[in-house]
Amino acid sequence: MISLHYFAGLKEQTGVSEEKVDLAGRTVDELWQWAMDKYPDFQTGAARVAVNEEYALPTDVLEAGDVVAFIPPVSGG
Amino acid sequence: MKAFEIVTEAINPQVYADLVLRPEAGAVTLFTGHVREWTKGVRTLYLAYEAYVPMAEKKLAQIGEEIEQRWEGTKVAIAHRIGELQISDIAVVIAVSSPHRKTAYEANEYAIERIKEIVPIWKKEIWEDGEEWIGDQKKKPEGELK
Question: Fewer CB within 10 Å: N-end or C-end of chain A?
Answer without folding.
Answer: N
